[in-house]
Amino acid sequence: MSNMPKKVAFWFTDDLRLHDNFALNWACSHYAAIAFIYVINPHDIGPNNYQHKAIGSHRLNFIYQSLCDLEQQLRALGHRLIILEGQPATEVCRFMQEQQIDTIVRSKPVGWYENKTCQVIEQNLPQVRCFATWNHTLFKPEQLALTPQLLNSFSSFRQHIEKRNFAVQAVSDTLSTVPHAIQVQSSQGISLDQFAQTYVTQPLAASAFQGANNRRWHMCSVTFPAQHRTAISSLATN
After folding, report:
1. CATH number for the domain harbouring residue 107
2. Residue 67's closest CA among 199, 203, 206, 234?
């Protein structure tokens, strides 16, 4: 790793997992030191226009338990998850400047607000490289070559897809290399206990969801016959 660029921050968003994560694999294989961050925006929790919430209570519980699972896995690798609190563009820019990190990597966002946040970061930190890759679906958007006409009805969309032999993205490999941890002061960010006390207002049931990878394996085990589980176990338990 001596010839690699020094520092990178990996920004977890809707991809709270260490495996089958193209963006994370890229960051870990191209940089010598890494910091893992997640940003909780209080504005998304409270009611906004027409009393709507960007993140409801059930999704918030899901996020919290996924973060707990992710933090446990990172700790086992000698890293920690840094949870920043505030407006994402502001908090990410501040973190990058304080830690003198010149590259940030994340999954390519889908939503308008999320894309706008990335644009603001790029404008405010022109010296920072922002790298994002598609990490959400089996097919990349550019593969589908969709037009408004094709989306007028499901039939037109289906016929368009059926005429083409799309290559499905291979599952991203298990992390083979994890860079050194960037030394970040423990006072940076909030703890998971603080996250729960501030944002998780509903008590979690005893049988509640227990983390992204763990839950994925549980769903596989109850959905697929035993003879098929070996093929998928590496996706859920590694």
Report:
1. 3.40.50.620
2. 199
